TrEMBL record:
Keywords: Hydrolase, Protease, Signal. The lineage of its organism: Eukaryota, Metazoa, Ecdysozoa, Nematoda, Chromadorea. InterPro entries: AB_hydrolase_fold, Peptidase_S9_cat, WD40/YVTN_repeat-like_dom_sf. It comes from the Eukaryota. Residues 175-386 form the Peptidase S9 prolyl oligopeptidase catalytic domain. The keyword Signal applies. It comes from Diploscapter pachys. The keyword Signal applies. One of its GO terms (molecular function) is serine-type endopeptidase activity. This is Peptidase S9 prolyl oligopeptidase catalytic domain-containing protein. Gene3D superfamilies: alpha/beta hydrolase, YVTN repeat-like/Quinoprotein amine dehydrogenase. GO terms for biological process: proteolysis. Belongs to the peptidase S9C family. Pfam families: Peptidase_S9.
Length: 388
């Protein structure tokens, strides 16, 4: 990473000669950000992971030439242990939690599955169908997304339009117990997610494009992406859609409240920024917030923070919103959620507040997670399924 203070800068694999002290870059010419690193036992290759267009594959880097070879295709490689013949990796996806696979050092052939850890628990559970799609977004760039169709559905289904956090992150092909698309599909929703400008896995310029542009190109992409998805997938009922997101995704649905106010039946906002001015003085991650608004503090350049500030558009808010926050959240303090809820109440907009006293920026405790899904799906049902 070359730019101090920028957590989403590209991570380049560097090699240091311990005898001479010479340092050279191996992946400077590869426009992907290196994740995990592991040497092969014979030192002939370095195994790395990196996000690439909604996947997180395993790659092998030649330490002599820097040549990068992709070893896996679909799925999210979450752990790597080198072996004499290649590597044992853990791979998960949108429809499957982690299992171990053997991957050949050459990358030839498909990864050989070694375990079925959750076979008993998953027996009898029908997973949804995931379809990728692309469209022309802001700046005339190609933008990717996916749509998740409930298993066995025959007619149109309401839409859960999920906005990822980060903002430098990705709605990728991975399994998570939080915000799990399969759970939404199991509840009868067609889930749509878009990797808007600022997402990772598409090159550093694409990632950089969101800085100082939080409410600009990303919103353009979301508008175009939802339109593209509902056009391409006839089983999506675009007239019954709910927008939901956490962290930056929570910021974006607050931004949508005032800047795309007539599109959604409901909104779910989790740990999102409501007031950029207060956020500039509250967050524990000052350097991140300042970088994202041009590199200065609020008092040095208030206009940069106010340009994309959701609080300035409260007069246009009208969509019913569920607000969720954690009292131990120091990244986006829970006062942001309380303020958003107050705005909704004062505007007379149907709204509900869920505060977790023992959670931080994420809902990590199993009992709280179950409550989270009940509240979120119940709110969505109220405004989409119950108003036919």
């Amino acid at each position: 990473m070359k730019r101090p203070g920028f957590e989403a800068d590209r991570q380049v694999l560097m090699l240091r000669d311990l005898a001479t002290g010479q340092v050279r870059s191996l992946t400077e010419g590869w426009d992907r950000s290196v994740g995990s690193i592991a040497w092969s036992p014979d030192s002939k290759r370095i195994y790395v992971t990196a996000q690439d267009t909604q996947e997180n594959p395993l790659f092998a880097v030649d330490p002599a030439t820097g040549k990068v070879t992709r070893l896996t295709q679909a799925g999210h490689v979450s752990a790597v242990v080198p072996t004499p013949k290649g590597a044992v990796v853990a791979i998960n996806s949108l429809t499957a939690p982690d299992d171990f696979y053997a991957v050949a050092a050459t990358g030839k052939g498909k990864p050989a599955r070694l375990t079925a850890v959750n076979a008993t628990k998953l027996a009898g559970i029908d997973m949804p169908t995931v379809s990728r799609f692309s469209f022309t977004g802001a700046n005339n760039d190609t933008v990717w997304g996916y749509a998740v169709k409930p298993y066995g559905s025959t007619g149109k289904v309401p839409v859960a339009f999920m906005v990822h956090g980060g903002p430098q992150g990705s709605s990728d092909n991975s399994w998570s117990y939080r915000w799990n698309p399969a759970v939404f599909a199991g509840a009868g929703y067609g889930l749509v997610a878009v990797d808007f400008h600022g997402s990772t896995g598409y090159g550093q310029a694409f990632t950089d494009s969101i800085s100082n542009n939080w409410g600009g190109w990303p919103l353009d992409d979301l508008k175009a992406g939802l339109a593209a998805a509902t056009t391409k997938f006839g089983w999506l009922d675009g007239d019954k859609a709910c927008a939901l997101g956490a962290s930056y995704g929570g910021y974006m649905v607050n931004w949508i409240e005032g800047n795309w106010p007539d599109r959604f039946k409901c909104i779910v906002q989790h740990d999102g920024v409501f007031d950029a001015r207060a956020m500039a003085y509250e967050t524990d991650e000052l350097w991140f917030d300042e970088w994202e608004h041009g590199g200065k503090t609020y008092f040095q350049d208030p206009a940069a923070f106010e340009k994309w500030n959701p609080v300035n558009y409260v007069a246009q808010w009208k969509t019913p919103q569920l607000v969720i926050t954690g009292e131990k959240d120091f990244r986006i303090p829970y006062t942001q959620g309380l303020a958003a809820f107050t705005a909704l109440q004062r505007r007379g907009i149907p709204s509900r507040l869920l505060v977790n006293p023992n959670e931080n920026h994420w809902v990590l405790k199993p009992a709280n997670s179950r409550q989270w899904y009940r509240e979120v799906l119940g709110w969505m049902d109220r405004w989409t399924k119950d108003q036919r």
